[in-house]
Specification:
Blueprint (H helix, E strand, L loop, with lengths): L11 E11 L6 E12 L5 E2 L2 H13 L8 E3 H6 L12
Parallel strand pairs: 2-4
Antiparallel strand pairs: 1-2, 2-3
Length: about 90
Amino acid sequence: MTKCEWCGSSNAKETTNNVYWELPDGSRAIEIHNTPCIDCLECGMEYQQEDTINTIENHLLLISIDNVPDSLTFEELMSIKKHLKRNYFDF
């Protein structure tokens, strides 16, 4: 089990859920299925860990978002070819 960042319970587990994410240019939101998350069985909170959030945010900055479908899986999103090697503004 994993420790919940919200309530501190050790009764949390790693799983996946569906999330809506706004594209960096603010033009629209996409639905990302099977996104890694933590599900706390104590307080009921489902959330993405900071590293997952950073992975999604950085990847969206490094790909061409014009052809990103409105709905896709986390794996499909991560498989979209990057146009830049890295986010040079991520310190």
